[in-house]
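mind reviewing this stuff:

——
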Amino acid sequence: MKTLPPNLDPTRLPRHVACIMDGNGRWAQQRGLPRIAGHRQGARTLKDLVRCCKDWGIPTLTVYAFSTENWQRPLEEVSFLMRLFERLLHQELAELHQEGVRLQFLGDLGALPAPLQLQMHRATTETAHNQAVTFNVAVNYGSRLEITRACRHLAEQVQRGLLAPDDIDEASLEQHLYTGSLPGPDLLIRTSGEQRLSNYLLWQLAYAELYFTAALWPDFDRTAFAEALQAFQGRDRRFGRLSPVEQALPA
């Protein structure tokens, strides 16, 4: 594992990290810059985080890039973000592919501009067999919509006689989520001091450890990431079971 900080245990790293990348606009405003400058710097931060996951042996990274609610932002900012997504995919795809990054996109992608959809399809197809790190980008994503969509698909199968109601379980519902067969995140990181999920991966985060930091996303470098991982490794993850100490106590 290249350059893993010595205070981290390589055997206890999360297998899947999810991020809510918050604070790009505030980062720019603090510097007297337009909000779009914060988004540009945030994209650089994200690019390094993908490489960091590869270097440190974290196989899956999922980031919240654009929510279903973000359409309410100023039209100029939304248009810039769509162009930024498209331009980054065009510019970075070859390098990401060479580094073994597998790109996937989660969300209602059909509502996105056609050129962006084309770039996403190309990126997904070209990197489908890469194995160094899986990089999921949630775009036009809302978890409530995702769960509603999955329920609707199951209901349609029942209506067509392809599925019995009693056969619906957690596994069958998960298959119809955007994340499909991906394992749930072990760690959620949200930057900028906000402490809420904001309609992000509500089903998938059921047993994730939550880490909130005051750092704005453009400032979230490898040192800040290492601090989040160190906090994760300090958590006692029992999943409903007793800890070894509790098991040793008399009933």
Summary: Residues 13-141+184-232 form a domain with the Undecaprenyl pyrophosphate synthetase fold (CATH 3.40.1180.10). Helices lie at 24-30, 35-56, 75-98, 114-126, 143-159, 170-175, 222-233, 244-248. The radius of gyration is 19 Å.
